[in-house]
Amino acid sequence: MIPEIQLQRAVRLLLQADALVIAAGAGMGVDSGLPDFRGDQGFWTHYPALGRQQIPFYAIASPQAFRQAPELAWGFYGHRLQLYRNTRPHAGFGILREWAAQMPGACSVFTSNVDGQFQKAGFEEQQMHECHGSVHYLQCLLPCRDAIWPASDITPEVDVAACRLLSPLPRCPHCGGIARPNILMFNDSQWLEQRCQQQQARQQRWLAAARRPLVIEIGAGTAIPSVRHFSLQTVQRHHGHLLRINLREPSVERESDTGIAAPAAAALQVIHEAWQASR
Questions:
Q1: Deacetylase sirtuin-type domain: from which residue to which, for each copy (predicted)?
Q2: pLDDT > 90 fraction of the chain, expressed in percent and rounded
């Protein structure tokens, strides 16, 4: 599946690193069975009720949707919250943890995913930088104040066929108004980003101590390039290397880096076996 020369390059990059930086996009969760919403048709395949109404992803994933049709918006996000709670992370997450455990500087995670799968797979909260927030945290829709709280107390009941919330709307504990996920949405000037800012500051302090960081970028495309920008900035600022795993867009610019065209879980497993054999 992976050409031998690329496989050996990936192993060498792992062996020379003193710290692991995991940079993950939507492709990281696909092998766990999570949708990546590639294009309107792909999105509507997973949410046919929104397809029948011709509501694209950017329209439902917006504060405006919560203001105009809160039961529909919470039908979408409530379903996603329950899906992420019920999803078991694939074996690749465990492989990354095993690699990180062998490095002096351990690891840090940068992800645009809002699903909380890294924490569910055993990564510590202090290792995380969720640049778009997390569906597992809530904020006031207004917002009435700078408050973010866990979503652990809500269990949305959703009519999946209609993509509509049946249980009561989640409410802000401070003003009683509608609550929304603490996620950076489209056209979103109300997102409370202090949790993300704290994660970013902690990650930058950690990176400052790394001498030979390896960025393993997984499933991050160019359509929404947040993860790719982070990867490139990190290898440039901290003299690191890049291992890019991407089924459709695996190319890298530097000869010292490596790109692998493969799904996340399969690529990590093959590299892991070669890494174990080389030690």
A1: 1-276
A2: 92
